[in-house]
Design a protein that fits this description.
The complex is a heterodimer of chains A (376) and B (369).
Chain A: E1 3-10, E2 18-24, E3 31-40, H1 43-50, E4 59-60, E5 65-72, E6 84-87, H2 97-100, E7 125-127, E8 130-134, E9 144-148, E10 152-154, H3 164-167, H4 173-185, E11 192-196, H5 202-211, E12 216-220, H6 224-234, E13 238-240, H7 243-253, E14 259-264, H8 271-279, E15 281-289, E16 300-303, H9 305-308, E17 313-316, H10 324-336, E18 346-350, H11 355-363, E19 369-373
Parallel strand pairs in A: 4-8, 11-12, 11-14, 12-13, 14-15, 15-17, 18-19
Antiparallel strand pairs in A: 1-2, 1-4, 2-7, 3-5, 3-9, 3-19, 5-6, 6-10, 7-8
Chain B: E1 3-10, E2 18-24, E3 31-40, H1 43-50, E4 59-60, E5 65-72, E6 84-87, H2 97-100, E7 125-127, E8 130-134, E9 144-148, E10 152-154, H3 161-166, H4 170-179, E11 189-193, H5 199-208, E12 213-217, H6 221-230, E13 234-236, H7 239-249, E14 255-260, H8 267-276, E15 277-285, E16 292-295, H9 297-301, E17 306-309, H10 317-329, E18 339-343, H11 348-356, E19 362-366
Parallel strand pairs in B: 4-8, 11-12, 11-14, 12-13, 14-15, 15-17, 18-19
Antiparallel strand pairs in B: 1-2, 1-4, 2-7, 3-5, 3-9, 3-19, 5-6, 6-10, 7-8
The chains are: A alpha/beta (376), B alpha/beta (369).
Amino acid sequence: MSITTRAAITRAPHVGWEIVDLQLDEPKAHEVRVKLMAAGLCHSDDHITTGDAPIRLPVVGGHEGAGIVESVGPDVQRVKPGDKIVCSYIPACGACRPCSTGHSNMCVKGLNAGTGMFEDGTWRFHEGDTDIGGFCTLGTFSQYAVVSEWATVPLREDFQDIPWEVLCLVGCGVPTGWGSAVHAAGVRAGDTVVIFGSGGVGSNAVQGARFAGAKNVVVVDPVEFKREMATTVFGATHAFATAKEAHEFVVETTWGQLADHVIMTPGAVTEEMVQAAVMMTGKGGKVTITAVGHINERAVHVHAGMLIGYHRQIRGALFGDSNPLYDIPMLLGLYKSGQLKLDELVTRTYTLDQVNQAYQDMNDGKNIRGVIIHEH
Amino acid sequence: MSITTRAAVCRVPGQPWEITELELDEPKTNEVRVKFLAAGLCHSDDHIQKGDAPMRLPVVGGHEGAGIVDAVGESVTRVKVGDHVTCSFIPACGKCRYCATGRQNLCDAGKNAGTGMFPDGTFRFHQGGEDFGGLCVLGTFSQYAVVHEFSVIKIPEEIGFDVAALVACGVPTGWGSAVRAGDVRAGHTVVIYGAGGVGSNAVQGARFAGAKNVVVVDPVPFKREMAEVFGATHTFATAEEAQDFVRETTWGELADRAIITVGILHDEVIANAIKVVGKTGQVTITAVGNGSINENPGMLIGYQRRIQGSIYGGCSPLVDVPMLIGLYQAGDLKLDELITRRYKLDEINEGYQDMLDGKNIRGVIVHEH
């Protein structure tokens, strides 16, 4: 049976989020309807409203979410009604080539992220006759959503008491940041690592780099509050407001050998940042790009000689090269044992009605991460 | 005692190679004098002569060479007089950070490649009062050169000098661009842009590493034909044809690896290579030129592609040069087929013209003594 749900949608770039009532279908085969309890305010959703993420509109925002399975369609095996789950913004079907070779972050079932369409060519959210997709085929800025069972990660018995505002963040920002350092970059003990941007993703790259044994974890962020959080809470050894200051420090501390890794997790990547990152990377070093840039800017603009002479690598990272079914429970385990700081990521919580204010706070540099607590 | 040697030099970019007589100092501490028997005509030397690779001039060309140790300075331990050697265009000091961590291709002692200056600030080639550097502190386009002992590798006496010369640069650079830097694995689909003196060895490396499809893109019919000798499974004249083939043969999953070994790097071949690799694919850039990467980050993030710059193909010369010679001796690596034509030192400009005309996989100078 179809139900009504309150949701934040975007109808066009540059007009912000609008709170509306939508009709939500019941789940079909391999789908589940989730009562969402909390949703993270990731920068990627903001890229939709700025036009930097060209996706089908209108769209229900939100791709970080956690909640309770309300009902399931036929053939669902991974979860059952009443289960607490985290949504993974990339599904993991377990059967395609990327899933079969340990790269679930590239699961082919993620192909409808930009339309929110289900595999049968239909949508679950409707406003009158208009079909509305959920971002990443989720749409966690809604009280309820129908999602693929492949996008759900069930929680073990000992994770049941973790607060919702923490759970929602392990669906994207935490593994994306952590994995950017640990998996995609491959930080090793003793490395010097520079991280551009220490927000909801970068703070976790800091934690990952430190946990992997980096000697120097150097943060570049113009916002004083974020630098302070990076050094006093998440494990950065040094923090600078500008790339130039970080470069000078890295030259000095490595005796000119430069950094082993630069990880790019700012709000938006620019050409200037990429060039600064390459210049800061030493022989055999690697630049890992996790953050997206402006849609029309070719921010990765580097003379090939800059890569060849020093044998440098530039790579992209999606979901930090993490495998959601393994890494999400693993990260929650680290949190439970006190080794991963997740409570400290949540600077402020908001109601759904405050979503535009929340994004203003993010863009003003006030939050590591803001979280929407859904009202029911 | 100083000796006289004939050498091909570049004084000003844009001028042909000039054959001239130079004075050559005797080797100092840790240096050896090599009597060169053969030198490879690599595209990198042409980049200098054309002004694309800015370096200190005048310079003695040549960074692929093999010969016999003719004299040694003090404290030399790696070789002795009479040893047959090939030269490594990047030295391997064995003690800097990169040598110490298994990455001799990044040896800090390679820093004077563009000047030919020795660590004590002096030069070994002279004419009148003028100092000449050797390219990569070698200068194999000379009958004799003084080089650092870190730049020579002893080879078996039964190996031909012409073949051995190529194992100093083009062969490991190409092979390693597939096997080391390129990380080709069994079952992969690999696209190689440019099948000349470097690319032909990327083809051999990719095939030896077990690639299922070794796809070559080269506009020259002769090189495409030779690529099949070296193990290419498919060859195309254009990137567009290769793209269509790869899409079809991989059911849209695209290539696992792309390797760029063209003569002159440009933006378009980089963009083509990024487009031809699929999810988690890697583009390895080995070729030199004025090419840039110019992409939206989304091209790298969404498919999690990576771009690897490659020097010496990521090979460690002290291990990989003898290993490649061993593969050649066992019949597993084709080196004789790389040499299309042999030239005298006096014919060097003709040799480079043949290269630019697409007539050669590799031309080799056979020195006269």
